[in-house]
Design goal:
By secondary structure, the protein is an alpha/beta fold. It is built from 14 helices and 14 strands. Helix 6 runs parallel beside helix 7 and helix 8 runs parallel beside helix 10. The protein binds nicotinamide-adenine-dinucleotide and 2'deoxy-thymidine-5'-diphospho-alpha-D-glucose.
């Protein structure tokens, strides 16, 4: 964003804006009060939640700059007219949980690959309109991707031009989506940028994922299902930093480029669990060692030099971010208790029933 002229892209289509990271992007962007308007397109799957945008809806000035459309990114009829109204599309919409991709891959292919294709086609149609003088430049398309496309990284750090070796249906679908996006840059000259973020945590994170699952289970003195030896390593990125970096790349990233967005907070899972139990004042005896995730990636780590060269630095340390996240889950129990009902029970039984029944005490 230029200091004097405000943001380069003032009218945004934010897909998946009712999810964890997308809603943070929407809240933080509208809270800048710089005139940016946002259309959120979200299918409101089990992971989407309008309550994630409650702070915006409670503020009349921000609410006036938000339009919420319930719909599917894979639906041409919905997406086309929305793309005609905006300067940029920021695609957060995805099926995002690795364990669910192992149980049921279909929706991952539909949304994370075919849905991206529909969004790209809508941008291409706008490019054609622009070439006929019917609008200004075609929308910029930012694809939110993941470090998981690199696959498991035993040592060192992945760089943007490393080969992709995704190993789960989720990461393979995400790789498909971003490769398709880049192909539209190469083939059609569409203005495309891609971000690859690392493991994100913070408020409004669906309780299916490690940190919120373990915080909310521990608050209720429920067992914590740690996969395998718990020595898998993840690089934790606070959601405000992830959303901020995406906004930064949207404004300043070079067309056709990919940017890693690491957290630079690599931890073994069991160390994360130790830290959160200590802060909650709960015992390690809640932790159960359960059957591992099939094909479980051992480690992710990314090099950040390209993003740093673009002028971005993260602001939230893991210690501060985790403490604030735990406080948020303690203070917002209505939010997660309403999610941990309905569909949740069937999912939890399917994912963890046999695992917990066959579990052992975790050392
Ligand atoms: P999330 O599961 O919390 O939210 C996904 C959102 O997309 C939900 O609101 C859901 O309703 C919506 N959605 C799903 N399918 C849709 C469809 N077909 N049409 C329209 N909306 C649809 O996910 P998240 O954790 O916020 O992740 C957002 C993006 O960031 C995803 O693309 C994910 O792959 C990527 N990412 C996530 C992380 C992480 O650690 N959470 C890290 C790196 C990248
Ligand atoms: O790395 C970025 C990715 O991070 C994103 O692309 C994904 O959308 C996001 O879900 C996340 O994927 P992970 O699989 O790394 O996150 P998850 O929270 O599911 O798991 C984190 C680690 O904790 C992983 O090693 C598996 C382990 N785990 C997870 C759960 C849910 C457990 O040991 N027990 C669990 O119950």
């Amino acid at each position: 964003m230029s200091e004097t002229n405000g943001p380069r892209f003032r009218r945004l289509l934010v897909t998946g804006g009712a999810g964890f990271i997308g809603s943070c992007f929407v809240r933080d962007t509208l809270a800048r009060r710089d005139g940016t308007t946002i259309i959120v397109l979200d299918k409101l799957t089990y992971a989407g939640n309008r309550a994630n945008l409650a702070p915006v809806e409670a503020d009349p000035e921000q609410a006036a700059r938000l339009r919420f459309v319930v719909g599917d990114i894979a639906d041409h009829a919905v997406v086309g007219p929305l793309a005609a109204e905006v300067d940029a599309v920021v695609n957060f919409a995805a099926e995002s949980h690795v364990d669910r991709s192992i149980l049921d891959p279909d929706a991952f292919l539909r949304t994370d690959v075919a849905g991206v294709h529909v969004l790209l086609e809508a941008c291409r149609a706008e490019q054609e309109r622009a070439s006929r003088g019917e609008r200004d430049a075609a929308p910029r398309f930012l694809q939110v991707s993941t470090d998981e496309v690199y696959g498991s990284v035993d040592t060192g750090e992945s760089r943007e031009d490393d080969r992709l070796e995704p190993r789960s249906p989720y990461s393979a679908a995400k790789a498909g989506g971003e490769l398709l996006a880049r192909s539209y840059f190469v083939t059609y000259g569409l203005d495309v940028v891609v971000t690859r973020g690392s493991n994100t945590y913070g408020p409004y994170h669906h309780p299916e994922k490690l940190i919120p699952l373990f915080i909310t289970n521990a608050i209720d003195d429920q067992q914590l299902p740690l996969y395998g030896d718990g020595l898998q390593r993840r690089d934790w990125l606070h959601v405000a930093d992830h959303a901020g970096a995406i906004g930064h790349v949207l404004e300043r990233g070079a067309s056709g480029q990919i940017y890693n967005v690491p957290g630079n907070n690599e931890r073994a899972n069991r160390d994360v669990v130790t830290a959160l139990l200590a802060q909650l004042g709960k015992p390690w005896s809640l932790v159960r060692q359960v059957q591992d995730r099939p094909g479980h990636d051992r480690r992710y780590a990314m090099d950040d030099s390209k993003l740093v060269a673009l002028g971005w630095t993260n602001k939230v340390s893991f210690e501060d971010g985790l403490a604030a996240t735990i406080a948020w889950y303690r203070d917002n129990q209505d939010w997660w208790r309403s999610i941990k009902s309905g569909e949740w029970d069937a999912y939890y039984r399917r994912q963890y029933g046999a695992r917990l029944a066959g579990s052992t005490e975790a050392r």
